[in-house]
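Appendix C reproduces, verbatim, an entry submitted by the partner laboratory led by Prof. M.T., so that reviewers can inspect both the input and the predicted structure.
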Amino acid sequence: MGAPIDWGVGHYEETAEQLLRASQAVLVAARPRAGERVLDVGCGTGNAALLAARAGAQVIGVDPAARLLDVARDRAAAEQLAVTFLRGDAAAIPVDDASADAVLSVFAVIFAPDPEAAAAEMARVLAPGGRIVLSAWWPDGAMIRMNSKAADTVRKAVGAPPEPPGFAWHDRDALSALFAPHGLRVTVDEHSLAFTAISAKDYFDLASRHPMAVAGLAVLDQLGQGDALRAELLALLEDGNEDPAAFRITSRYVIATASNGSQE
């Protein structure tokens, strides 16, 4: 198992802007109502938390990165939204049992080192009749190939063994088995998200500021291998580009809902 990701390094807020449409899709699936208690697990810079607060929900956002929580707090204050942001992670959520009507996670819980522990925690904080709504990438496409290439290169460079297959957060059967012990039924809907920029190089420069990229490239730069990987990753983006006049790559993802009761 690899070292935990420090999501406070780099400039994740730039990535978060590109994920806003996915946050909006998760909110549509969750349908938070005014007065409901909403918990955003892995809230990052607050995209989903702020959307829920604008809908009138009582919102708590939880994230392990103190710097991203500060960004989220500043965003909430700028809109005069009463959102509570707490430091914590999916395996140790700092809220009471049965205290959330909706638990959200936008491409966040999928990074949990222990999926069973994360599922148990989300189930613990879910109130009767509530729902957990999360998004997860489908494991194909140019973005996945780029990320996999980067991770494999870093592992080989430091002599680390191959990572075992991760949990299939995109798969309904896997999710059903994960949440069934907690009395939760799972449904899954497919979506897609287009990443755009004026060029592949422009997008690569943005992607290089993602926390995972910053950490990996720092290791390779120390070994004199960073520039070679940068060239390979840029080539993968150019090969997957869907827009000859600019840059666009479409990635598939799912929104999964785990519920323990009927919803009106």
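The mean pLDDT is 90. Additional entries are available on request from the coordinating office.
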